């Protein structure tokens, strides 16, 4: 009987770890979507391996893979990496966090940072 109790306890422990891991995976992938930027450009973020990439959507509604706007990794509850700045014509550091249907981006260039917000495209 004692061994049966241990077996049941271990089973619940293993199942709870699996459910927690699934929740974490879902949280990481919530960024995978098409987003509308402040200037109405649409950017598709998708996952390739452990990296989240963002490419603009062209006039035909297709992903333009010739231009990489974002390159992110999920770390400690947020996505961190690089974003391409058209204005500066170079890559800048970026941290992204979800807030409902909004994607908050904190872009940093040396000692200056700017906050942007993208909306999930419908």
Number of beta strands: 8
N→C terminal distance: 56 Å
Oligomer: single chain
Q: How helical, in percent, are the residues?
A: 10-25%
Percentage of residues in DSSP E strands: over 45%
Secondary-structure element string: HEEEEEEEE
What would your notes on this structure say?
A hairpin with a 2-residue loop joins strand 4 and strand 5 (78-85). The chain has an eight-stranded antiparallel beta barrel. The chain has one helix at residues 2-29; strands at residues 33-36, 42-48, 51-56, 70-75, 78-85, 90-99, 102-109, 112-120. 23% of the residues lie in helices and 48% in strands. The protein contains one helix and eight strands, in the order H-E-E-E-E-E-E-E-E. With 122 residues, it is of the alpha+beta class.
Short description:
The chain is α+β, with helices and mostly antiparallel strands.
List keywords for this structure.
single chain; 122 residues; alpha+beta; eight-stranded antiparallel β-barrel; 1 helix; 48% strand; globular
Secondary structure layout:
Elements: H1 2-29, E1 33-36, E2 42-48, E3 51-56, E4 70-75, E5 78-85, E6 90-99, E7 102-109, E8 112-120
Antiparallel strand pairs: 1-2, 1-8, 2-3, 3-4, 4-5, 5-6, 6-7, 7-8
């Amino acid at each position: 009987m004692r061994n049966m109790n241990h077996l049941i306890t271990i089973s619940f422990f293993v199942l709870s770890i699996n459910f927690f891991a699934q929740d974490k995976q879902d949280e990481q992938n919530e960024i995978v979507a098409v987003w509308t930027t402040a200037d109405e450009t649409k950017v598709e973020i998708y996952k390739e391996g452990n990296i989240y990439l963002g490419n603009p959507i062209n006039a035909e509604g297709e992903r333009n893979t010739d231009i990489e706007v974002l390159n992110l990794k999920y770390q400690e509850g947020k996505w961190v990496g690089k974003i391409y700045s058209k204005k500066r014509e170079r890559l800048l550091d970026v941290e992204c966090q979800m807030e409902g249907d909004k994607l908050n981006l904190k872009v940093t260039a040396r000692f200056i940072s700017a906050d942007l917000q993208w909306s999930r495209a419908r």
